[in-house]
Amino acid sequence: MERCQARELATWAYRSTLKIPTEGSLNNIKIVSRDLVFANNKFTRVTSTDALAQQITNQVTIWLNEWFADPTIGIDYAGFENKRYTNNEIISSVTQSLYKNLNILLVNSITVSRNLVERKITLDINLETVEGNMVIII
Fold first, then answer.
1. Closest Cα to residue 101, out of 65, 54, 47, 59?
2. Terminal Cα-to-Cα distance of the chain (whole angstroms)
3. What pTM value is reported for the model?
4. Which of 52, 74, 81, 113 can bridge 62 by disulfide, Cβ–Cβ 3.0-4.6 Å?
5. d(CA 98, CA 25)
6. At 17, phi and psi to the nearest 5?
C-alpha cells in the first residue's frame, strides 16, 4: 500500500471513531492499544454501544494536537504531567473534551481516582449518549 493511501485510511479510521455517523447505527473499525485490528484479511468492526464506548475512550486518551486529522480532539496531558492539577481541573478538562463528541448528550458525573505510587489516574465516567446511559472506566 502506498504511503498516501495508508495515510488516507488511517485518517478515515480515526475520524470514524470520533464523529457521529451520517445515518444508521454506529459502525467503526476496532482499535486496540491504538492499533487498527485486522483479521481474516479485513478490518474488524465494532457497532452500536461498543463503537460509542471506543469513541469516548479514544477521545479521552488521545493527547491534544496528537492526531493530524483533527488537532482539536484530545486532552492537554502535558499540563497534567508538569503540574499538580486538582480533581476538579481534571474533570473540567475531560468534560470539555467529551462535549466535542456529538454522540454525547450529557456528562452526568466523572470520578477521578489517583494511584500516586504508579502515577496513574483512573476516570469513572457516567454519561447520557445517543445510545442511552453509559458508564466507562478509563
1. 59
2. 34
3. 0.68
4. 74
5. 20
6. -85, -10
